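[recover] target loaded
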């Protein structure tokens, strides 16, 4: 039997903070969790091109404060702040509450495991060789100052082939025993997926749908 643990949830309260920070009565907790998920799903889908690795949500009595971490804040803000106001109003309409939307810039995207994983996913969707995709992100991450990086992709990685392939590449000046360990991902044939580990930074898991 597989023993798979979410790499973020495993570290919450130890070296990572909660992505949702609020208190509520027991009967409201379920609805608010679903509401947080709707907010994240909408913003992630709408702003995927801006490079959004994390969305944090805080709640007070009548205000929902969203901290949107992104690699390209200009894409979110828009000219004169018009674009970000549209997103804020859209979220307000969706949940029926007052919303504050704050932007937090990710200054080094190559050191963020979620963005590195999404970069590989986009290259795979563009039919780039999986080995070339992994080697390119490993080189950029190491040049950015990472102590090491471990990547793993799985699925039907050779276009036109039916067979399932599991491949991994690493680059490190660091002992692998010191890497932040993450959950092992098992991919279904027809799906491309990868697990990215960057020591002392973050673990990320992301998927890219196969394009025939």
């Amino acid at each position: 039997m597989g023993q798979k643990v979410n790499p973020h949830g495993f570290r919450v309260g130890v070296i990572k903070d909660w992505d949702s920070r609020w208190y509520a009565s027991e009967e409201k907790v379920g609805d608010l969790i679903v509401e947080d998920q709707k907010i994240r799903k909408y913003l992630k889908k709408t702003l995927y091109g801006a490079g959004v690795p994390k969305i944090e949500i805080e709640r007070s009595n009548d205000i929902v404060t969203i901290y949107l971490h992104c690699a390209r804040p200009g894409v979110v803000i828009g000219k004169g702040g018009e674009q970000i106001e549209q997103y804020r109003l859209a979220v307000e309409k969706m949940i029926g509450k007052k919303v504050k939307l704050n932007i937090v810039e990710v200054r080094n995207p190559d050191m963020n495991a979620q963005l590195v994983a999404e970069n590989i996913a986009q290259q795979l969707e563009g039919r780039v060789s999986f080995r070339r995709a992994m080697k390119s992100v490993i080189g950029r991450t190491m040049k950015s100052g990472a102590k090491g990086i471990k990547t793993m992709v799985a699925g039907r990685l050779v276009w036109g082939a039916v067979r399932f392939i599991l491949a991994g590449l690493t680059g490190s000046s660091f002992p692998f025993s010191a890497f932040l360990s993450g959950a092992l991902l098992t991919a279904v044939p027809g799906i491309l997926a990868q697990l990215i580990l960057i020591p002392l930074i973050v673990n990320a898991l992301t998927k890219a749908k196969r394009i025939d």
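[recover] notes: The CA atoms of residues 83 and 168 lie 39 Å apart.
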